[in-house]
Amino acid sequence: MPRKKPFSNKQKKKQLQVKREKKRGDTGSGPSSRNASVERGGERQSDTSDSETTDVRRINQQPFGREGRYDPNRFRLHFEKESKEEVEKRKKLAREKVLQPVSDKELEINISDIFPSEKGLGFPLRPPWSYEMTRENLLRKEEKMYRDYLDDMHSRNPTGSLSHFEHNLETWRQLWRVLEMSDVILLIVDIRHPVLQFPPALYHYITGDIQKQVILVLNKADLCPPPMVIAWKHYMASQFPHLQIVCFTSHPGQPYSTVLQKKRMRKKADWSHAGGPLDILKACQEITAGKVDLSSWEQKIKRDAVAEHLDGEQLDEGAETVLMEHQTDSAMEMSSPSHELYKDGVLTLGCIGFPNVGKSSVINSLVGRKVVSVSRTPGHTKYFQTYYLTPTVKLCDCPGLVFPSLVNKQLQILAGIYPVSQLQEPYSSVGYLCERTPFRSVLKLTHPSLMENKAHNRSQGSEELNWTAWDVCEAWAERRGYKTAKAARNDAYRAANSILRLAVDGRLCLCLKPPGYSCLKEHWENHPDLPEIIALQGRTAVDEGTGERDDDDEGESSTEPEEERDRDADDDEDGDDEDEGFGHPIRKEDKPSGFTVNMYNVLRENECE
Ligand SMILES: Nc1nc2c(ncn2[C@@H]2O[C@H](COP(=O)(O)OP(=O)(O)OP(=O)(O)O)[C@@H](O)[C@H]2O)c(=O)[nH]1
């Protein structure tokens, strides 16, 4: 009898993987279709270290199930995989490159740098169709169009030159559906870097081709200095004249969050000051010009404002029922190719935007309570659903979409577009962040070279020492007590992940500026709209300036075990994190005159001790 050949674990794993894929009918794509994808909802990314280099075709394979049925995991984020060499090169650089703070001017960013018109950075459009076509025919047509679209993109832009973008046709199909069924589009962006998340091609398509109105929601206004919020608003208006622009925050009046807080703060949003849902209503009133009766929405906002002042129990009793429609497979639906505006007297608002910009949070804010789960892991929303805000206003949520652009990949990660937990190499993003934020004073780090004999060396200070991204991670690991399991060395990888999450959450905050901001700084700092934005943020001078802890905080105590204290800043669960609080990330140099904000309160004095 022939001797059995030894079979390694790795081979066994591969064999199982092939078997599983065969079973799923995922033919042709091989292992790379899984390896190349970052799965929605925070599932672990497959190990890419031993697999082949970037392969666009394979990852575009759409996940079919048996008998041609669609795979339930079809809404995964699919990003192009990076080569092992590229990742190794960046790791090396993170250890060697001395961080140099960048100038204010370099934080200014023009939309044409991100989406240059000559690069043809469009997005896939649904091919024309009619009722005479069969469903299968339509699907095939869509797939062909999608492959052509990608071929065209890649022929114009060499491999690796584009940032991560969505490679999953299923997700684009969701966008088509939302655009088709909506009367007005709420395009939501993060005010810290709105131009990263505003594809001009989408704007031109909606306002030009399908002739619908767009309300640009500059969300997370609580995370950006008020003068910069105003400057961004003006910049976007100057570039895209057909937009209605609304500043928004789903966390108005939130007290400062602390990095080591064990539990998140539970404060109900308070829009009694200004703006918020009311501004969105006003924009809709202007657009609909009396064609839809929006009085029920206006009344709801008034009722919600009253309810905010009631305690929790009364609130629950009074909570209104929200009619929800689950649109599980609607991307495949063949609805009418032509859309009837304000059908049955109902205004349908479609919420679209990149992952993590706060689409679900905006919907919850409009509804007045949580109907959509929220997560800081990008790609949480899997398929769109609709909610009746009132009998005449319907909201439609859409999964986050990453459009192709030329944004720097490190910045893309800091903007929350790529799930931090899935990163192969987080250090270069840490470096990018540290060169643009006062990380040392905020994180209160001791340089690793001074760690050996802390007591002796502390007196020397670390101001004059050079920092690399790796040093920052080591120093943060030391401060937080992150150790590797085997050798109990400082766990730089975990520290890097933790720092990036602080950035995404806005607790170590990077705000980019519109072009020319530095020259016109004084103008924006004295702008007449400033009080309106401060009111929207819902913070008073007392909240901002004192740096006192909020008494309601269920915050850490200094006696809390280290592990417990770590959890909040470090874990990137896919769970719902609705109750998160956020710090105010105002950079010292952005502080407007007469506006008392202590940006360094983001991490308070005793947090890092
Ligand atoms: N500071 C601040 N954080 C916000 C705001 N809105 C949302 N967030 C946080 O941003 C993260 C993402 O929010 P979601 O509402 O889940 O974002 P989304 O766009 O629906 O995300 P996807 O499901 O990935 O498409 C969560 O951690 C929210 O708590 C806001 O106005 N201010």
From TrEMBL:
Stretches with biased composition (Acidic residues): 549-580
Molecular function per GO: GTP binding; GTPase activity
Gene3D superfamilies for the chain: P-loop containing nucleotide triphosphate hydrolases
Sequence ranges of Basic and acidic residues compositional bias: 66-76
Basic residues biased stretches: 1-22
Region of interest (Disordered), ranges: 1-76, 541-595
Physiological role: Possible regulatory or functional link with the histocompatibility cluster.
Name under which the protein is recorded: Guanine nucleotide-binding protein-like 1
Source organism: Sander lucioperca (Pike-perch)
Organism ancestry: Eukaryota, Metazoa, Chordata, Craniata, Vertebrata
